[in-house]
Amino acid sequence: MSSFEDLLADDGRVEPRDEMPDDYRRTLVRQIAQHAHSEIIGMQPEGNWISRAPSLRRKAILMAKVQDEAGHGLYLYAAAETLGVDREDLLDQLHTGRQKYSSIFNYPTLTWADVGAIGWLVDGAAIVNQVPLCRCSYGPYARAMIRVCKEESFHQRQGFEILHTLSHGTPAQRAMAQDAVDRYWWPALMMFGPPDADSPHSEQSMAWGIKRFSNDELRQRFIDMTVPQAEALGLTLPDPELRWNADRGHYDSGPIDFTELFEVIKGNGPCNAQRMAHRVRAHEDGAWVREAASAYAAKHAARTREGAA
Ligand code: FAQ
Asked: Which of 1, 42, 173, 196 could form an S-S bond across to 169 if both were Cys, CB 3.0 to 4.6 Å?
């Protein structure tokens, strides 16, 4: 057995300088880059509401949350770079549509309640997906996930709290909360990816210990966790087939329209073009900051060299 296979058999962690198969490296770059891109594109739907948050307290919380997502992007780009890829190149692949980001961020945030629904459902789904990634076989990715998951659980609770306030407020606020949940429920379930039978990467990624559970297993775990929370909120999940199945020990649910997921992934979601145009514009507008930071770093490095000479 190679040392790579030994490591996996012992449930050890693969580190950047360890030998690893090219396909393992490529799969990690694909997944970590997609994950990093999702974090930074994911700033847009909620960032939209910073200037319109209903109170100073809500504004401060939302700014901190959106800033956390930028931080997650940074940890993840740094983790990807340990695999020998360049961050500029990954961003270029995002901007030219050669790498993906999560489908969920192509839906609009029409009301303040959507910020609550994103926190509760989108961050909730992200946690269910990412907690097992803390045990991913690739060390830098697994370690980045530990802090990300801690922050995501604050995010999930702030979303729940927004919806709890609205669902116990005026009839109009309650209706706004219900409408947001109606629109975000199905897209949140699609975040877990295609069904196992149509997931080309799952089997190999699970054999390599990158993914610990399949897409359907994690989706089921999310449904089981979320139904009682919806009851606590007094809101209804928009699936008439949702009911507890005592034999399975899980909730049964209705069919998911995966054609919608595939369309959104292909670029045909309601906000794909807007999200990408905004991202490219922000990157171009930030060129001077990157240039200034590089010039400053070069000046410092030169001074350190002079000091050492
Ligand atoms: N959207 O064979 P599989 C967040 C692609 S959380 C777009 O099942 P895999 C936090 C997939 O890449 C969101 N594309 O693939 C936050 C593959 O494409 P390819 C980010 C999707 O990788 C909250 C193809 O379909 N989280 O950002 C989606 O084994 C609030 C076949 O699929 C992560 O990225 C989708 N939903 O499993 C931020 C978690 N699903 O390259 C701001 C890490 C699948 O063959 C605000 N990633 N695809 O053309 C993962 O766990 C996995 O990559 C999966 C997909 C589970 C997403």
From this structure: 173
Measure CA of the first residue to CA of the last residue in the chain; give whole Å: 48
Rounded to the nearest angstrom, the distance between the alpha carbon of 270 and the centre of ligand 1 is 18
Ligand 1 neighbourhood includes 264 CB (under 6 angstroms) = no
Question: Ligand 1: distance of its center to the CA of 191 in Å?
Answer: 7
* Alpha carbon of 129 to ligand 1 centroid (Å): 10
Average pLDDT over residues 19-24: 97
Q: Which atom of ligand 1 is nearest to the CA of 118?
A: 30
Residue 28 Cβ < 6 Å to ligand 1: no
pLDDT in tens, 116-173: 999 999 999 999 999 999 999 999 999 999 999 999 999 999 999 999 999 999 999 9
Angle of the 22-41 helix axis to the 272-285 helix axis, nearest 10: 90
